[in-house]
């Protein structure tokens, strides 16, 4: 039974049981409505709504969106609750989110256990609360608190919710017991239904320019997004009009968001993030190994950030460097990073100190003998990495997991120098490792299921989004980035400028433009990587000559104060540098390239189609398990706008036929070297199948 009803003395208890998160599926909505209607005629004096399992209702059933709405609608269920003649009490635990919290707000009283949290995360799905949340929260908590809660989508703990009058009681003890006690006390006190809709907001308490200033703040914080702006409109309606008028505004704008491409993209990302950690074909019973202690080899920017990831999850870490001086530098960098978090109020001094204590240093490989997981983060040279893994093989205990943080080198070649290739895996973190959520997990030919399963679990424990990749040059992200970078360099030398390319991509939604990213990461990284390649591997000089020239001039980007842009030594503020255009023009001349006007549209198409085509090749080769995994890589690792759903979802929205035809047009214009359309893309266009359909039908071609 998804919704049970039983009379406990004079309280009608409605219990919802819809694992895993009691989402408001059609069955739950129907069960609720029937229970409320039925209770009108029994001897109950009040009604109590609570849930079994890990959480109160965590929202509408996201998987139902995109389908035809099924009766009863959530608003109709909530008005049945609110119009009940008997007091209705909600008892919250876990995460009462979205429609779940809106249901609680339609009740007349709300209690919660201390560990409960409440929130309206709809904005993270490109939606807004569509069941009265934008009208009831401002009436209880005030307009500003409503703006913060609903435009951020962040949950708040029970105590904070009580301070905002969003819940009435925080009760210690067994949920059902304390909730029943609270309901009985309300009945004993003669409490009547208390409807939030009856609260009016005094417009005089709302500053005139509040909504205008909030909108402009959101234009920066949530650049390009529709839902946050609509949320402000709904709350403004709550402040300035009647409840029913406000409800109508909310409904209209909710439907507009629900039908928007942005919401479809963000709902896709919700499931893509969660599906990415599922390994196709991995037996469910695959055991996980305990990871009680971790070692990181290399205390540079990456190694230090990786060490922090584990310390932040409460796992002790040994940081190994080749000399005490290098080790101290590494530990000081970690201390500095924690200091920044404390200064920004993200961590207390005590927490930062506790985490730092979990990181100890050593210069002796022998000290790593008992570590369960060792992650190598040394220089990107296959020779150096083979040396490190040879040492680890001699020192580490049996069943220790030996991981490399390489960003594109051959994990199988590294595994081959050890006597235990089944225990070797790639764990590719993204800089800064303690911030970026993406973790590419590279499965070697011999990596065991157990090591893979353990890596997926530990990734989630350290709050990463793990995505599985097979071995190839650059795995998923960097392999696609090479094509994106190639087109960036070609647009640059053919007639564009760093400012134009970056502006096009940022206006389209990227967190940063590709040239600014190059300056941030350091132009020496790409330069050194190219030095290790043969001329043939490097490709046409015009695809990297500008970057090489800048690096050879010592213009490495932010770290040297100049790269594609100039940087203020104090503020690091970016500014154009006329010198760069001269360098570009000189390189174009050297390469015999006649520069021309390049349109914004051409830049956008070439850079995004280069990503998409490579993504299709990665799918057809079985490097990535599914299109959503590639989307997760780009959204969580490369600043791709979530409201465009990642490169592969975006391809479906463009229409695969259009994508294919545009790639063929570029092939006809620029040649087959860069613009040969993926065979999978061609196949899907011929079969008139979308990527979404391909994913759901394993019988289709190229399915691994
Ligand atoms: N609908 C459908 N499935 C959901 C779901 C939902 N709302 N929430 C979670 N799941 C699935 C999820 O896909 C996964 O499935 C499993 O539950 C565990 O989730 C009208 C319109 C509650 C904090 O946005 O934030 O209400 O992979 O891995 O880390 O105004 O789930 O096991 O097959 O995330 O412990 C608003 C979304 C909806 C909340 C638990 N609500 N969920 O986190 O587990 S829109 C949300 C979460 C709405 C109203 C509007 C988290 C969680 P599987 P999980 P977790």
| CATH topology grouping of the largest domain | 2-enoyl-CoA Hydratase, Chain A, domain 1
> Biggest sheet, in brief?
8 strands, mixed
Q: Which class of the largest domain in CATH terms?
A: Alpha Beta
Helix vs. strand class: alpha/beta
Number of domains in the coordinates? 4
Spans of 5+ residues with little confidence (pLDDT < 50)?
none
Let me know the number of strands: 19
CATH architecture of the largest domain: Alpha-Beta Complex
Distance between the termini: 38 Å
Strand order of the largest sheet: 12-11-10-13-14-15-16-17
The average pLDDT value, as a whole number, equals 95
Helix content: 40-55%
CATH homologous group name of the largest domain: 2-enoyl-CoA Hydratase, Chain A, domain 1
Number of helices: 31
Globally, the shape reads: globular
Give a description of the structure:
With 704 residues, the protein is an alpha/beta fold. The chain folds into four domains: 3-258, 2-enoyl-CoA Hydratase, Chain A, domain 1; 294-472, Rossmann fold; 478-599, Orthogonal Bundle (N-(1-d-carboxylethyl)-l-norvaline Dehydrogenase, domain 2); 601-696, N-(1-d-carboxylethyl)-l-norvaline Dehydrogenase, domain 2. The chain is built from 31 helices and 19 strands. It has an eight-stranded mixed β-sheet with strand order 12-11-10-13-14-15-16-17, with helices on both faces. A six-stranded mixed β-sheet has the order 1-2-3-4-6-9, with helices on both faces. It has a three-stranded mixed β-sheet with strand order 5-7-8. Helix 1 links the parallel strand 2 and strand 3 (46-51). The protein is globular, with a radius of gyration of 28 Å. The two termini are 38 Å apart. 47% of the residues are buried. (2S,3S)-3-hydroxy-2-methylbutanoyl-COA (T1G) binds next to strand 5 and helix 3.
């Amino acid at each position: 039974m998804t919704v049970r009803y039983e009379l406990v003395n004079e309280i009608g208890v409605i219990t919802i049981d819809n694992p895993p998160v009691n989402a408001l599926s059609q069955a739950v909505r129907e069960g609720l409505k029937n229970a409320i209607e039925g209770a009108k005629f029994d001897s109950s004096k009040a009604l109590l709504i609570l849930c079994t399992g890990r959480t109160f209702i965590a929202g509408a059933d996201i998987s139902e969106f995109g389908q035809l709405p099924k009766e009863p609608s959530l608003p109709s269920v909530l008005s049945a609750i609110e119009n009940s003649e008997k007091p209705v009490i909600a008892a919250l635990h876990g995460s009462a989110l979205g429609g779940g919290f809106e249901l609680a707000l339609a009740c007349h009283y709300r209690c919660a256990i201390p560990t409960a949290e409440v929130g309206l995360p709809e904005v993270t799905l490109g939606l807004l609360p569509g069941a009265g949340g934008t009208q009831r929260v401002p009436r209880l908590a005030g307009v500003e608190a409503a703006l913060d809660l609903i435009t951020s989508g962040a949950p708040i703990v029970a105590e904070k919710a009580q301070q905002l009058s969003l819940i009435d009681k925080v009760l210690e003890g067994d949920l059902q017991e304390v909730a029943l006690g609270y309901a009985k006390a309300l009945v004993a006190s003669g409490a009547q239904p208390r409807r939030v809709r009856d609260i009016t907001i005094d417009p005089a308490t709302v500053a005139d320019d509040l909504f205008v200033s909030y909108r402009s703040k959101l234009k920066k914080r949530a650049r390009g997004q529709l839902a946050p702006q609509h949320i402000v409109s709904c709350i403004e309606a709550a402040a300035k009009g009647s409840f029913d008028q406000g409800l109508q505004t909310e409904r209209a704008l909710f439907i507009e968001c629900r039908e928007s491409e942005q919401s479809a993209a963000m709902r896709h990302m919700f499931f893509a993030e969660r599906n990415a950690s599922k390994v196709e074909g991995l037996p469910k019973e695959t055991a996980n190994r305990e990871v009680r202690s971790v070692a990181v080899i290399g205390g540079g920017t990456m190694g230090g950030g990786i060490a922090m990831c584990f310390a932040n999850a409460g796992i002790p870490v040994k940081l190994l460097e080749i000399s005490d001086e290098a080790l101290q530098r590494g530990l000081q960098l970690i201390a500095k990073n924690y200091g920044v978090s404390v200064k920004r109020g993200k961590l207390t001094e005590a927490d930062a100190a506790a985490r730092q204590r979990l990181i100890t240093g050593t210069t002796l490989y022998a000290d790593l003998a008992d570590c369960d997981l060792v992650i190598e983060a040394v220089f990107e040279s296959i020779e150096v990495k083979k040396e490190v893994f040879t040492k680890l093989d001699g020192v580490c205990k049996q069943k220790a997991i030996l991981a490399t943080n390489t960003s594109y080198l051959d994990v199988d070649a590294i595994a081959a120098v050890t006597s235990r290739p089944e225990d070797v895996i790639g764990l590719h973190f993204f800089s800064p490792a303690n911030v970026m959520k993406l973790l590419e997990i590279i499965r070697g030919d011999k990596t065991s299921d157990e090591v893979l399963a353990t890596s997926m679990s530990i990734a989630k424990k350290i709050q990463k989004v793990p995505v599985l990749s097979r071995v190839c040059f650059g795995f998923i992200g960097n392999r696609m980035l090479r094509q994106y970078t190639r087109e960036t360099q070609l647009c640059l030398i053919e007639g564009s400028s760093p400012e134009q390319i970056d502006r096009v991509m940022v206006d389209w939604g990227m967190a940063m433009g590709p040239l600014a990213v190059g300056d941030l990461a350091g132009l020496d990284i790409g330069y050194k990587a190219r030095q290790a390649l043969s001329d043939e591997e490097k490709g046409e000089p015009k695809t990297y000559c500008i970057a090489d020239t800048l690096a050879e001039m010592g213009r490495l980007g932010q770290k040297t104060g100049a790269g594609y842009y100039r940087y203020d030594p104090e503020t690091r503020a970016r500014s154009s540098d006329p010198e760069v255009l001269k360098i570009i023009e000189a390189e174009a001349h050297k390469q015999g390239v006649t520069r021309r006007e390049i349109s914004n549209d051409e830049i956008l198409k070439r850079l995004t189609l280069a990503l998409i085509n490579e993504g299709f090749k990665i799918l057809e080769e079985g490097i990535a398990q599914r299109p959503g995994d590639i989307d997760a890589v780009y959204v969580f690792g490369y600043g791709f706008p979530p409201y465009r759903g990642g490169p592969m979802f975006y391809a479906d929205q463009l229409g695969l036929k259009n994508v294919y035809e545009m790639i063929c047009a570029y092939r006809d214009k620029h040649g087959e070297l860069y613009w040969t359309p993926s065979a999978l893309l061609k196949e899907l266009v011929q079969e008139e199948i979308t990527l979404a359909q391909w994913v759901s039908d394993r019988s289709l071609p190229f399915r691994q």
